[in-house]
User: What shape does this take?
Amino acid sequence: MPIQKGLLSLAFAGLIAPALAAGQPMSHPDERPAKVELASSNVVVPIRMEKGRPVVEVSIDGKGPFPFVLDTGAGGTVLSGELTKELGLPVVGEVQIGDPIHPQSISAKQVRIDRLQIGAASFSGLRATSMENSGFQEHLGARGVLGMPVFSELLLTLDCGRGEIRVARGELPEPDGKQVVALQPGHGIRVPITVGTVDLVADLDSGSPASISLPHKYMDELPLEGKPVEVGHARTVSAEFAVYGATLKGDVKIAGYNLERPALRFNDLPFANIGSEVLKRFAVTIDQKTGRIEFRENPAAPPAA
Assistant: This one.
């Protein structure tokens, strides 16, 4: 589907919580819950797509629920300053956050959450970041962003085709290069992909409504079916920049799947990015504990634009 020229908000895609700034590990211990309780062996929670992103209802300290974007590209959970005040969450520290362009550009407060509830899954004793003037409601249609440290000890399946997430204990099988692949070293949920004949590592980023996004330099290095044209602008927490689009003359390979002649986006971010336009084709299970990820194609899902 062509994207009209205008503001293509990555919004807070690529958001770096304090855990990811300055080369620290993917999940900071303070942002992992101290205790996790699941009402069943496989907790199923409905999601809806809001502005191209998966949104889940979250209750905090017995209040809510509130809409949060489930963002596989976020290194921590972030609340709007307005919601923090509404909930009366205690401030426990100050941190610097940002995005991949400016990793520590924003001063923010860290707050304590006693209990975070997602459907029949309960997470106790964790910290989150409170961001003033976040624009979450305006740009995301949500009150915050739910990051990956919450699920650090669990299997998290994002299934946009069925409109649900699934949370369970356990681990994925050994990588087979077809459905299960090893997560790549570095910050975030990073997977190997092949674009045409170029091997890359891409961030899995459900917080981005785009398909596959690449740094500008690849406009000159990949076979494209036409000259890239400006299709809009994107926003991160600290920057706004032009986005160019073109169709790849070839395929993109993710795990054992080929995406034929996908629409690519080129921007100022320094890494490749797989957004929700592609992810909605799959049920994606993330196993942070063992560093593995599984892709299972949903035959009912529409093809990526």
Remarks:
- The two ends are 5 Å apart (CA to CA).
- The first strand starts at residue 35 and ends at 38.
- The helical segments are 81-87, 136-140, 276-279.
- The chain has two domains: 18-168, 180-297.
